[in-house]
Write a structure and sequence with these properties.
By secondary structure, the protein is of the alpha/beta class. The protein has 18 helices and twelve strands. An eight-stranded parallel β-sheet has the order 9-6-3-2-1-12-11-10. Helix 1 crosses helix 18 and helix 11 packs across helix 12. The chain is globular.
């Protein structure tokens, strides 16, 4: 990375008239806004289809794209929808994502588009055939999984009839033959997500903006990958986890976080050189330029909790795959284009693994201002190979943190360190991030707009009320853009201008 600035905003948070941000015109306009400010990186959360709770970190597939991101406007341009299709739906809020209304509405538009495609396939038929052939290794399993899940009212695969849950070949073949159209719809949806994201990424590249993506270390139990490859996970004979992932008590929760994801059988994965992981990361890096490895410390050691535990308190540390894993990945990818999310309980083995691999870690300014002992995230302790954030998707907004979460000692140190009266803490921390020696400084868009705690993206340890934030047009004003541009220029993070 060269010295640069980035903005963190998930595409679902963008404005659109369809109840949720998507990959259409407003996403392209957002890229123009970022470019005009001198932003070189757009950071997004995982782009996969979310599961219960709508978390992108608990997706129903780690390979598939999220069909909710499909732009209806672009489907009109493709001749798959008519303008009247866009106006005959329910009224959905502009300020937040109402998933209860958005999911059936987007599904209905997708069904209409697929019906018109089947009657008038045109040139897209060849495109679909090629896409299917190139992605068959994961796409067939995902399409069948998604169709089965829909047919069973959204039930987890472990609750399906045993022949389906355990993938009896004859049962799957009979079901696939009887419900082929349902699976074909899922394949079609994946083509649409792929082509719309590819167009958006090409636009970003033309503007000099790169995409920082995100790969969670763990996958959801109720996912196509666990259903299709149970041998890669620590499951019992019924396909249920014997142990699950989490983290011990920390800043976010006194009882830790019980994520519930199944844990990997790392020994089994090592047997073929971590092929599944090589495929997973290569697939993601075909869509983004750099990957944030969420919960990087889990590759050194992860917190293992009995599957029947009610909290994460009674877990234990278990060694992860370590350096051998990354050597295999580097050999397959030709390098390690990753940022290590090294937050939480960081021990010497995690630091040794991160630094031995030469990966940049993260520094969070909301964690930086404890008066004693001083935090390693305080700006004078930053180093070049690092990504500095005011906060992440798991943090409160900076204003919400300053007014509600920070202690008086932290607020006082912020005021003294930034030489400010504390009346605009969002931009105080943005300035400190831009001034940092860290190569990349990333700011959540909520902080650019100076928003409060009600606009945070996620509250760890809570299952409801997350992932619904959306920006509105005033948050894309010229005043915010120009203020950001001035700091980017002042602190040497502006893209290089062509000589001439």
């Amino acid at each position: 990375m060269n010295r640069a600035a980035g903005v963190l905003l998930h595409p679902t948070c963008l404005p659109s008239p369809h109840g949720i941000g998507d990959l259409g015109p407003t996403a392209h306009a957002y890229l123009d806004w970022l470019a005009a400010a001198g932003v070189a990186w757009w950071q997004v959360l995982p782009l996969n289809p979310p599961g219960p709770g709508h978390s992108p970190y608990s997706a129903t597939s780690t390979f598939a794209g999220n069909p909710l991101l499909i732009s209806p406007e672009l489907l009109v341009e493709d001749g798959l929808l008519d303008e009247r299709d866009l106006t005959d739906g329910p009224d959905l809020p502009d300020e937040w994502v109402d998933f209860a209304g958005v999911v059936p509405r987007k599904r209905e538009l997708l069904r209409r588009a697929f019906e018109r495609f089947t009657h008038r396939p045109g040139a897209m038929a060849t495109e679909l055939e090629t896409f299917h052939a190139l992605n068959r290794a994961w796409l067939d399993d995902y399409a069948l999984f998604a169709a089965l899940k829909d047919a069973h009212g959204g039930a987890a695969w472990s609750d399906w009839p045993r022949p389906l849950a355990r993938r009896d070949p004859d049962t799957l073949a009979a079901w696939r033959a009887k419900h082929r159209a349902a699976a074909d719809l899922e394949v079609f949806a994946q083509l649409l997500v792929h082509r719309q994201w590819a167009a958006l990424r090409n636009r970003a590249s033309d503007l000099g903006i790169r995409i920082l993506g995100d790969v969670p270390i763990f996958v959801a139990h109720d996912s196509a990958e666990v259903w299709a490859h149970p041998e890669l996970f620590l499951l019992d004979d019924e396909g249920r986890p014997t142990v699950v992932a989490g983290v011990p008590p920390d800043y976010f929760s006194a009882t830790g976080q019980l994520w519930g994801n199944p844990l990997y059988d790392w020994e089994r994965l090592a047997g073929d050189g971590y092929r599944w992981w090589r495929d997973r990361l290569a697939h993601t890096l075909a869509q983004v330029d750099l990957v944030r490895l969420d919960h990087f410390r889990g590759f050194a050691a992860h917190w293992e909790v009995p599957a029947d535990a009610e909290t994460a308190v009674d877990g234990r540390w278990v060694a992860g795959p370590g350096r051998a894993f990354f050597d295999a990945i580097a050999g397959a990818l030709g390098g390690l284009p990753f940022v290590a999310e090294d937050l939480g309980v960081i021990t010497d083995d995690v630091v040794e693994l991160r630094d031995g691999l030469g990966l940049p870690g993260m520094a969070i300014l909301q964690f930086a201002f404890s008066p004693e002992p001083r935090s390693s995230y305080i700006p004078y302790a930053h180093h070049r190979r690092q990504v500095v954030y005011t906060g992440t998707h798991d943090n409160n907004t900076t204003l919400g943190w300053f007014l509600g979460d920070a202690g008086e000692g932290e607020r006082e140190l912020v005021r003294r360190y930034a030489d400010t009266d504390g009346s605009d803490p969002s931009w105080d921390l943005i300035r400190l991030a831009m001034a940092s020696v860290a190569e990349l400084a990333v700011v959540p868009h909520q902080d650019l707009a100076g928003l409060g705690a009600d606009c945070r993206m996620n509250t760890p340890g809570t299952a409801e009320g997350n992932w619904t934030f959306r920006i509105t047009p005033w948050m894309l004003g010229e005043d915010i853009r120009d203020r950001l541009a001035e700091l980017i220029e002042t602190y040497g993070r502006a893209p290089a201008r062509p000589r001439g």
